[in-house]
Structures are given as structure tokens and as C-alpha cells.
Inverse folding.
């Protein structure tokens, strides 16, 4: 009997640890009432990047604002990071019965939205992808093979070993290509610096490994893709998206002039109006 009690206690304790770890994978803030919208930010970015948009949307929609583990001051989780994030978001949508939800995702958040839209169990309404690709690694790495991307690599080890000064210099350089506004560049830099370093390094490996180009064939709901024209120019952007989304049957494609990767920071008024227009369409 004593052994049985100990076994039961151990089982309950294991469940509580699992629940704790599961809940830490994503942090969610819910506001507003109406049809559900799930908003997923990009890599290193906290959910509050959506605040200006949510301020308007919450009048008519129930907004579920996501922050991913290791970013925005949240606790890191065990690796592999991205597969756990994907599954947690899928479970969150199912467990909260978010029928016909719309997902808005920026960058990595848009890639995750693509993965979610390809899942048979989820009955989503539409997805809106903001400067997001289904296979970023294939664009960035010659002879791309996900199997070749591992955590224990010289590049990753160098990133982990950087002192704070060197890492801040790296973050500053990266931020300058992601927005045309100095104030936004400062925000982006700080989000990188505030992220958990190991999540930043290994999580990016997870991101580059993910290739959803075949999964696109499973998506039948409406998709809107919004792409920034800078810094590569409109023609190159058009070709890149055409190649990456070749397996997606139908989608609405919008290129934003005079904007870099963080469109919501570079062109906030335009972005807000565009989101309202897309959400109000069938």
C-alpha cells in the first residue's frame, strides 16, 4: 500500500512538472470579445509588439497575444525549442476551442502560422503572414539540408561565448537591417539583448531547420502575405516569395514600399488599416 501511495504521488508530481513546462512554452494574454485572433510575434520579439494593433482589434475581436519562451523576459524551456512551441500553440487552440480563429504572424510567427494552418485538426479561418517565409534556411544556406544544422556548431559556440559588448554590437548591426526607423532599431536591438542567449542561438537553429514548403499543399484556407520591399528591392522580393510559396494554391500577396522587415513599426498607420481591411474580408 505504501509503495502504491508513493507511486501515485510520483505520478502526480510528474504530471505537475509536465504541466508547468507545457505552460511555460508560450505565454498568452487574452483581451477583447468576439471572433478569436491569435497574434504570434517574430524571433526574440515579445507579444506587446502587437499592442497598437490589439488596441483597435479588441473592440471587435478576442485577441490572444503570444510571447514565446525565452523572449520578452519569459523563462527558457528545454530544447528542441521550436517543435515544442509549435505543439503548444496547436494544443492551446484546440483546448480553448478557438473555432475559425485567424492567425496573424510576423516573421517566425508567420512561419508558425503556416505550420498551424497545415494541421488537419485545426479549423482556422485565415492566416495573415507578415514578412514570413516557409523555409528561411533554404533562402540563406547554399545546398540547404536541415539535417546538417545542429546545435553544437562552431558558429553557435561562438555566439554563446560572446561577451556582452560583442553581443550588443552584433544585435545593433542586425537591428539596422530590420527597420528604417532608428527608434524601432533600438527596440529590436533591446529585444535581442533581453532574450535568453541559448534560446536565441539554438532556437534560431530550429528556425533555420524548419522547411514547410511541402506542408503548403495542405493549406486550403485564405492566406494573405505582406512582404517588405527593403532592403532587397521589389523584384527580388517578388521572386523570393514566388519560389518559396510555389506549393500554396492561392494567396493574396501585398508588397509594402518604404518598409523593412518590421512593417508594423515602419508603417504603423498603413499596417493598422491593412489589417482591418483583411480581417473584414471573407
Amino acid at each position: 500500500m505504501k509503495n502504491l501511495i508513493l507511486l501515485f504521488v510520483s505520478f502526480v508530481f510528474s504530471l505537475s512538472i509536465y504541466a508547468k513546462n507545457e505552460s511555460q512554452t508560450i505565454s498568452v494574454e487574452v483581451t477583447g470579445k468576439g471572433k478569436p485572433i491569435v497574434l504570434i510575434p517574430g524571433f526574440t520579439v515579445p507579444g506587446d509588439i502587437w499592442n497598437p494593433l490589439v488596441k483597435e482589434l479588441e473592440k471587435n475581436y478576442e485577441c490572444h497575444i503570444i510571447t514565446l519562451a525565452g523572449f520578452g523576459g519569459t523563462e527558457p524551456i528545454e530544447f528542441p525549442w521550436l517543435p515544442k512551441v509549435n505543439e503548444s500553440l496547436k494544443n492551446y487552440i484546440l483546448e480553448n476551442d478557438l473555432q475559425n480563429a485567424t492567425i496573424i504572424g510576423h516573421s517566425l510567427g508567420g512561419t508558425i502560422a503556416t505550420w498551424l494552418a497545415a494541421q488537419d485538426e485545426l479549423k482556422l479561418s485565415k492566416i495573415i503572414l507578415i514578412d514570413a517565409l516557409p523555409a528561411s534556411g533554404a533562402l540563406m544556406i547554399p545546398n540547404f539540408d536541415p539535417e546538417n544544422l545542429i546545435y553544437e556548431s562552431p558558429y553557435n559556440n561562438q555566439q554563446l561565448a560572446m561577451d556582452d559588448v560583442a553581443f550588443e554590437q552584433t544585435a545593433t548591426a542586425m537591428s539596422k537591417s530590420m527597420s528604417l526607423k532608428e527608434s524601432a532599431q533600438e527596440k529590436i536591438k533591446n529585444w535581442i539583448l533581453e532574450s535568453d542567449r541559448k534560446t536565441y542561438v539554438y532556437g534560431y537553429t530550429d528556425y533555420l531547420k524548419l522547411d514547410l514548403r511541402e506542408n503548403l499543399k495542405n493549406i486550403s484556407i485564405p492566406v494573405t502575405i505582406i512582404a517588405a520591399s527593403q532592403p532587397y528591392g521589389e523584384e527580388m522580393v517578388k521572386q523570393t516569395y514566388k519560389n518559396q510559396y510555389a506549393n500554396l494554391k492561392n494567396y493574396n500577396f501585398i508588397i509594402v514600399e518604404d518598409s523593412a522587415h518590421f512593417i508594423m513599426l515602419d508603417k504603423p498607420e498603413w499596417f493598422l488599416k491593412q489589417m482591418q481591411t483583411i480581417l473584414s474580408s471573407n
User: Anything to note?
Assistant: The radius of gyration is 19 Å. The first strand starts at residue 26 and ends at 31. Residues 2-25 form the longest helix (24 residues).
